[in-house]
Design a protein that fits this description.
homodimer; globular; 18 helices; 16% strand; 461 residues; alpha/beta; 15 strands; four-stranded parallel sheet
Chain lengths: 461, 461
Amino acid sequence: MSDKKNIPYKIYLEESELPKQWYNVRADMKNKPAPLLNPATGKPVTLEELSGIFCEELAKQELDDTNAYIDIPEEIHTFYKMYRPAPLVRAYYLEKYLDTPAKIYYKFEGNNTSGSHKLNSAIAQAYYAKEQGLKGVTTETGAGQWGTALSMACSFFDLDCQVYMVKVSYEQKPFRREVMRTYGANVTPSPSDTTEVGRKILAEFPGTNGSLGCAISEAVEAAVSQEGYRYVLGSVLSQVLLHQSVIGLEAKAALEKYNEKADIIIGCAGGGSNLGGLISPFMGEKLRGEADYRIIAVEPSSCPSLTRGTYAYDFCDTGAICPLAKMYTLGSSFMPAPNHAGGLRYHGMSSVLSQLYDDRLMEATSVTQTEVFEAAEKFARVEGILPAPESSHAIKVAMDEALKCKETGEEKTILFGLTGTGYFDMYAYEKFHDGKMENYTLSDEEIAASIAKLPKVPGLE
Amino acid sequence: MSDKKNIPYKIYLEESELPKQWYNVRADMKNKPAPLLNPATGKPVTLEELSGIFCEELAKQELDDTNAYIDIPEEIHTFYKMYRPAPLVRAYYLEKYLDTPAKIYYKFEGNNTSGSHKLNSAIAQAYYAKEQGLKGVTTETGAGQWGTALSMACSFFDLDCQVYMVKVSYEQKPFRREVMRTYGANVTPSPSDTTEVGRKILAEFPGTNGSLGCAISEAVEAAVSQEGYRYVLGSVLSQVLLHQSVIGLEAKAALEKYNEKADIIIGCAGGGSNLGGLISPFMGEKLRGEADYRIIAVEPSSCPSLTRGTYAYDFCDTGAICPLAKMYTLGSSFMPAPNHAGGLRYHGMSSVLSQLYDDRLMEATSVTQTEVFEAAEKFARVEGILPAPESSHAIKVAMDEALKCKETGEEKTILFGLTGTGYFDMYAYEKFHDGKMENYTLSDEEIAASIAKLPKVPGLE
């Protein structure tokens, strides 16, 4: 239970050690992520086009693949101090339980009211919207973590916040909705009749439970059709990975403080915001040839965009009104089975991570829902933290890797991202306890059918 | 937003600064709390009698009013490191929002999965049960924070954990129940037909929603009727205040680190565990004449044991099977109105705090439910943390005191206890948002009727 180096259970950096700049991993990538395309022309979107959807500063960040470091504005830095630096935890009890020679660390991002890492980007996006003099922002939320984070951020900067919440989550998670209301947000179940695209989807699929892709379409329409509003997104985008780099920068600094070096870095991957943020500075070293790391993305077997998708241009949303992104995708028409890790039920993957994966700079693996909850419950019992289903995907693979070390006797250092807490996911835990949780693994035919519907891109056909 | 002394937003002590001893405030009290009495004889309970209900070591702590410091066993100290030291937060944003010259600090105990300070005593009680070679423990829970904390602690020491959960909470808070199941606890809605006292209460009050007093009676019966089991309680008892002194010891050490001294210390008070723990070391200085502090207990106007109760011997439980304690009480037959701060719905108050209050060493005030939720929502929006309804009683009064400073221009330092988070209380927030929350203030007649039923104590009549 003790360590030669006397490493504490929780490594807290000082507030003065909070990163002052985000790190933009794209700057160090030889093969840059493919540009976003205007679906009408097949040409890369311009700053002007993008600024109609996003705040201008965020549009700039989205297109910036050359500047490695971008200053964190003072207001955001000060807000970060309310809940950051986040602890890097040495999982002594998990190591003991697994009886492994591996050293396990996790970067815990759940100690803020949004319950996850999403707040890191939400506060940045709200800040730039305020700076631009906007009235408000629109967004979608699935599991509710992003919507909660954005509500908190908008409340802080006194911005109107309109959240389109996937209908099934809106109904199954009334308490998530209530947290957003506490922070003053307007929450609408999606699809709704408040947008044209929502009405169209409702007409085509009456009684649908909604999906993240639908909710994105509605939120984008709401943004572009209201004066003084822009759309913000909690994952997938390169700007989001940029903001989330604060996770990796802190984790790296905390490890270095104790002369530790990670061998394996593991994160769950839905749209890629957490994994992208966690690995950024480590990947930077790898890209520059300064160090090597095994990096593993973990996705649910019911929504395996990296492990079983295809690398192609696709829409980010179901309504097909967003720019096209080149990414590993199951097809924007893909409707994932009801896996309880709502944050991982997305058809595509960050363009940055997709390119890194395609370049064999990281690995990916998929796991089933029940094995994830088994790992989650074990983790809760030995480490005390009740993990979110999303985060538990990383826990499962971290435990597997630590057990491999037990077999080989290797004393590897494993770092994984514990993105958030599961307080609003107890319905899923209940199903698990009652033995009513099902696994969904897609057939090759299902995936092929969905991928066959990928959009034709003008000029790329 | 900055401070001359450069005080960070969150003051984290090092793990090496975690207190190694609990502080027993009774040792410094001139007027000791009145002893627990055996209701059959009217005589002070003996260690032997008490050891039939509680673990022996805990029974000793319960009776110990002379030793000022008690070592924290190594296993407990190590467990504490998983979530302690807890941060002392400087409420810069709240100060700014209130535009007050006052300096506001809060000791935040919500950053662990039980969501509150309750874990501090739960782990101690589970440890001593394990040390004694017991099979398991029984307890009651109202809002569910104590039950969750005890489930975590028992899971850690591999003890059986039987929780009697007030029926209305069991039904309204299925997710709390599910967290306890995640940690392996058995949860029974109370009153139940698994105990004699439960069956009796059900026969007398069919369709009752249950109460904390009933659940205590059931848990005690379950403990004494099973081989190898003892009963544990999350508040009221002097042993619990002892364990909770870790809150105050850390808060005091953190303030001293920055040469700060509290003028006013505020905490919510149900059974008294949080307030008692927070104030212990400060009260110790006050009792020894080394310093002075204004100390304020905050209770709900619907359950005002200190402000409107009477100081007398009473049962701790509704079933009248526990020892008698001298305390400020509304009568053990009192059934509080459905205030959403379940942790404050208790008819009595810790004997230690009752004596200190009777000796005018601390003040008490009561607040209504709606003003508490108004303060809670404001706090959430500016400080980012979603507070539990219980904790929000302290927030309300801290804000009031800070506003008084604004009027007088005094630069007082206010410290309050933020005992936990409100993630499982969103039903209450929903009622508040929908304008459906009611206030309950008791009439003098109601209180008099309840107090008239206080037990007759042999030899004290």
